[in-house]
Design goal:
The protein has about 220 residues and is mostly helical. The protein has 2 domains: about 1-70 and about 160-220, no CATH class; about 75-130, no CATH class. The protein is about 60% helix and about 5% strand. It has 8 helices and 6 strands, in the order H-H-H-H-H-E-E-E-E-E-E-H-H-H. It has helices at about 1-10, 15-35, 40-65, 80-90, 95-105, 160-180, 185-190, 195-220, and strands spanning about 120, 125, 135, 140, 145-150, 155. The strands form 3 sheets. A two-stranded antiparallel sheet has the order 1-2. A two-stranded antiparallel ribbon has the order 3-4. A hairpin with a 4-residue loop joins strand 1 (about 120) and strand 2 (about 125). The radius of gyration is 25 Å and the shape is elongated.
Length: about 220
């Protein structure tokens, strides 16, 4: 029990890390760059409006990816109490498969293995629909499961796949915008400008970290 609690807490570490980096980049961009560094009011307004649009969409899609519960098969894919008891009593795989075939004949969809055996999850005790897989981290069968992503501490599947792709897109736009608008201060850094140096330290480092995370997330999709 203690080990499971520790695992649940540690699973949120990557999410907390991303949240801290994003919070750091927000402070650096809004306060250090727009408030203290940029002198032009028009430039400040344009930068802040575009930044907050990308920031809000980035945070929204990230939150939806994290907190949208994985979609699981409906109750009709679970074995009845009688079939479950009979399945557990049987020791021969052929007899177990016969029970599963009888239970699956009225289902809207089910899948079989290469040997024509019906896919069944002993852990969740249900017949698996198409592209349904059991996630050991979430301990549930997830519909259209793609992968379990540690950076969102959630399974990416049927219920949140759209939000995951939006998160990747908005985070990329967020990083590109921050990097593009701070580029001139990166150049000023090489002209020995102490203020530009602070902006580079505050903004380029978190931008690179987020971009690295995006690359890893994109790699998991590939």
């Amino acid at each position: 029990h203690v080990l499971k609690c520790c695992q649940k807490v540690l699973a949120w570490v990557p999410v907390a890390f991303i949240a801290l980096v994003v919070a750091w980049s927000y402070y650096a961009y809004v306060v250090e760059l727009c408030v203290f560094t940029i002198s032009s009011t028009a430039e400040k307004v344009v930068y802040l409006v575009v930044f907050h649009l990308s920031f809000v969409m980035f945070v929204w899609s990230y939150g939806k990816t994290i907190f949208t519960s994985p979609a699981t098969p409906s109750n009709e894919f679970c074995l009845s109490k009688a079939d479950k008891e009979q399945y557990e009593k049987e020791e021969r795989p052929e007899s177990q498969q016969e029970i599963l075939r009888r239970a699956a004949k009225d289902l809207p969809i089910y899948t079989t293995t290469a040997s024509r055996a019906i896919r069944y999850c002993d852990r969740c005790q249900l017949i698996k629909p198409d592209r349904c897989h059991h996630c050991s981290a979430c301990d549930v069968c997830v519909l259209k499961m793609d992968h379990h992503c540690p950076w969102v501490n959630n399974c990416v599947g049927f219920s949140n796949y759209k939000f995951f792709l939006l998160f990747l897109m908005y985070s990329l736009l967020y990083c590109l915008f921050v990097a593009a608008t701070v580029l001139q201060y990166f150049i000023k850094f090489w002209t020995v400008s102490s203020k530009a140096f602070l902006v580079v330290v505050y903004l380029f480092n978190p931008a690179c970290v987020i971009e690295g995370c995006i690359s890893m997330l994109s790699l998991t999709i590939y």
